[in-house]
DNA sequence: AAAAAAT
């Protein structure tokens, strides 16, 4: 099978186009301006955005921007990023005067500020109920609406326009009372919206917002390559899967946004999950990140909300609101849907997806997570919240402050459930789901996603889900053949110089993610790389949220094409175009390894993962070997020998050493059951069914016992799992 | 042992 490199839309120009467009105007440089997290930026656009941006945006501006900005830093980088890097670093330091002279800590990534320009002339709090307050929306730009901005209208996006009615969504309110910035129009608008709200009809397009949401480079999922990913759905009356987004009716808003997102075909998990969720069934899905699962739940959930409308939640929100100085202030929000995620960055990422799929709808997504200004988050909530993405701790906080009520939460999603439990979130999760006002299972629809299905998750599923469908999706990308995995023996003392060699051999435009085991190690390595003149950044849990988000942005945008990271970045983060993952320190846990290398080779791209191995990594040897074999990778003979020895030692503890020492790789291969494994590695133990092990028949069965032992052949964790807690 | 997460 050929590897399709989906790279057409990931060029540097595309990345430039989504960079902060204010970066050269001095605003982002900080000068004491309060930090605004990415999702809240541009809220007060009227304050600090010149009107310069609201015009000239209409056509072709991205090209102009790219050209005018590229000399600024890209030019420097293509000559070797050393120079541009130091320049930027000095700027940053001068501007913020804090911390060591790190490029991303100094705010040189002037992307903060208000990258979207502003088209509000009108403060949002005047808006009242049911207003057009899709994030960052502003009705001024509605003026720009034309065929170009409507769904499907772009010639390069092909297909039919989902909005051939063109005026349907905009009938009435916006054109009459909405935009224009006049304050007088608002009251009439409010009244209107109370009556004839039809949530299934699209609101008018907003070119600026549309461009902001959909011009990113990491949207177009192209999963043709993954048609052979096995998926199995079990449970009573499981709905059949779809093959196309058109096979299920998700309404014109969703279909339009799918087109804008350039999603051509559903990924395997989407093919199955979408109809299951549309059928209002609870779902337990075992799927890796990178499989498209965020859209797999967002699309059907949002579609259902559009179809059903806000219902009681709207009434409740209204009831909790009160009038102050002639304005409605929402005291408590009653989201219709809640998505829980383990890490802040993942929450943000899900939120960003939600914004795309709620474009031109009346659904207003919000995100809350720790480490950021809670006051700002509260104000954002008060502007309306229909879909909430949250990390558990901050959500509990919000609930205790009376800012969020889950009484009318009809859709609950637990993403990366296993990770949340690993991180000790179970009490908070149970507090949120079971000990508050959330409707009980059965009355709500609950979807759980997890990469693994250990006992704790089974119990949680039993407690939270009703008559659920179990979905098992083979791994996508993580250990598949589009990632080339290399393991090299590198002593601790040689790691740094070896790393430099690797970095020097890497293309300038490729993103490289370097994993280390400790936060201290991350700082140290980043400092080292900095001193060596590399444009790098780092992310770990001891850095402030602001720094983490900024680092991520610097990396994503290519400004710092090297990022040193701890486990915080291993899972869930979808960064397109990561060409190389380097395990500077190997993790002790194979799951962690799989997640880490899964940061590259995403959505059909080819990727490279290089791991530094030495004596300290013996604990992962056996599992690492299994992964390499399963993914048909070249296995160094020394690793094979070590794996055998280690396994032998651990399974035959106490046996004399000579016993294990007497066997070589050849013996190991025979024991491994493959016989001829060297020439035919992939055949070993995989049953010809990649990612699933050999026992497909019983895979995923309810109450069965075969899933655990076979899932993915890795880690061995599954095998020890007793399914239903018996 | 380390990492993550509410302050």
UniProtKB/TrEMBL annotation:
Chain spans, region Disordered: 25-60, 91-123, 150-190
Residue ranges occupied by any Helicase C-terminal domain in the UniProt entry: 482-643
Keyword set, alphabetical order: ATP-binding, Helicase, Hydrolase, Nucleotide-binding, RNA-binding
Ranges of compositional bias, category Low complexity: 111-121
MF terms in GO: ATP binding; hydrolase activity; RNA binding; RNA helicase activity
Enzyme Commission no: 3.6.4.13
Short sequence motif named Q motif, residue ranges: 243-271
Biased composition (Polar residues): 48-60
Top-level EC class as recorded in UniProt: hydrolase
Domain Helicase ATP-binding: 274-471
Domain DEAD-box RNA helicase Q as annotated: residue spans: 243-271
Reactions catalysed according to its record: ATP + H2O = ADP + phosphate + H(+)
Pfam families, sorted: DEAD (PF00270), Helicase_C (PF00271)
Coiled coil feature spans: none
Record family assignment: Belongs to the DEAD box helicase family. DDX3/DED1 subfamily.
Protein name: RNA helicase
Organism, scientific name: Cirrhinus molitorella (mud carp)
């Amino acid at each position: 099978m050929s590897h399709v490199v989906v790279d057409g839309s990931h060029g540097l120009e595309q990345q430039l186009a989504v960079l902060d467009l204010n970066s050269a105007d001095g605003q982002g440089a900080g000068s004491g301006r309060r930090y605004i997290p990415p999702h809240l930026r541009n809220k007060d656009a009227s304050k600090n955005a010149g009107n310069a941006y609201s015009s000239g945006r209409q056509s072709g501006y991205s090209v102009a921007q790219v050209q005018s900005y590229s000399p600024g830093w890209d030019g420097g980088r293509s000559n070797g990023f050393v120079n541009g890097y130091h320049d930027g670093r000095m700027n940053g330091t001068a501007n913020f005067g804090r911390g060591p002279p790190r490029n991303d800590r100094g705010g040189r990534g002037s992307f903060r500020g208000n990258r979207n320009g502003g088209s509000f002339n009108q403060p949002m709090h005047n808006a009242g109920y049911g207003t057009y307050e899709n994030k960052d929306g502003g009705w001024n730009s509605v003026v720009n609406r034309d065929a170009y901005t409507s769904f499907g209208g772009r010639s390069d996006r092909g297909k039919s326009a989902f909005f051939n009615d063109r005026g349907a969504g905009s009938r009435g309110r916006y054109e009459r009372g909405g935009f224009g910035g006049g304050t007088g129009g608002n009251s009439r608008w409010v009244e209107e919206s109370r009556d004839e709200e039809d949530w299934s009809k699209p609101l008018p397009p907003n070119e600026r917002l549309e461009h902001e949401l959909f011009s990113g480079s990491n949207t177009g999922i192209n999963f043709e390559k993954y048609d052979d990913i096995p998926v199995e759905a079990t449970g009573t009356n499981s709905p059949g899967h779809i093959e196309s987004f058109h096979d299920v009716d998700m309404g014109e808003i969703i279909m339009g946004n799918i087109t804008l997102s350039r999603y051509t075909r559903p990924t395997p998990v989407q093919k199955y999950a979408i109809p299951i969720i549309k059928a209002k069934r609870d779902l337990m899905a075992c799927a890796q990140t990178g499989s498209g699962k965020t859209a797999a739940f967002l699309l059907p959930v949002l579609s259902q909300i559009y179809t059903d409308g806000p219902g009681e939640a709207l009434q409740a929100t209204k009831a909790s609101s009160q009038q102050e100085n002639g304005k409605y202030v929402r005291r408590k929000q009653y989201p219709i849907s809640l998505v829980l995620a383990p890490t802040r960055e993942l929450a943000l990422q899900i939120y960003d997806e939600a914004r795309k799929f709620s474009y031109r709808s009346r659904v207003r997504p919000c995100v809350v997570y720790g480490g950021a200004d809670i006051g700002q988050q509260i104000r954002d909530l008060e502007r309306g919240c229909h879909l909430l993405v949250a990390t558990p701790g901050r959500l509990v906080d919000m609930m205790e402050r009376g800012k969020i009520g889950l009484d009318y939460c009809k859709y609950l999603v637990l993403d990366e459930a296993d990770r949340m439990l690993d991180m000790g979130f179970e009490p908070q999760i149970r507090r949120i789901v079971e000990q508050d006002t959330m409707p009980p299972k059965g009355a709500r629809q609950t979807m759980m996603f997890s990469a693994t299905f250990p006992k704790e998750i089974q119990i949680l599923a039993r407690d939270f889900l009703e008559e659920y469908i179990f979905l098992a999706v083979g791994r996508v990308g993580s250990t598949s053949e589009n990632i080339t995995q290399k393991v090299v023996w590198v002593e601790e003392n040689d790691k740094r110089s070896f790393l430099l060699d690797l970095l020097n051999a890497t293309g300038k435009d490729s993103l490289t993610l370097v994993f280390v085991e400790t936060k201290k190690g991350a700082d140290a390595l980043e400092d080292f790389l900095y001193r060596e003149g590399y444009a790098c950044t780092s992310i770990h849990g001891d850095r402030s949220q602001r720094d983490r988000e900024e680092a991520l942005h610097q990396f994503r945008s290519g400004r710092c094409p090297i990022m040193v990271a701890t486990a915080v970045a291993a899972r869930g983060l979808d960064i397109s175009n990561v060409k190389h993952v380097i395990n500077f320190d190997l993790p002790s846990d194979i799951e962690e390894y799989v997640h880490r290398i899964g940061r590259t080779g995403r959505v059909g791209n080819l990727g490279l993962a290089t791991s530094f191995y030495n004596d300290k990594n013996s604990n992962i040897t056996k599992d690492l070997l299994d992964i390499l074999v399963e993914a048909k990778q070249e296995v160094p003979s020394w690793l094979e020998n070590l794996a055998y020895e280690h396994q032998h030692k651990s399974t035959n503890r106490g046996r004399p050493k000579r016993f294990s020492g007497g066997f070589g790789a050849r013996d190991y291969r025979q024991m491994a059951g493959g016989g001829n494994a060297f020439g035919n590695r992939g055949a070993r133990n995989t049953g010809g069914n990649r990612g699933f092990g050999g026992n497909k028949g019983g895979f995923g069965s309810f109450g069965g016992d075969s899933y655990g032992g076979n899932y993915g052949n890795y880690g061995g964790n599954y095998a020890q799992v007793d399914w239903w807690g018996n």
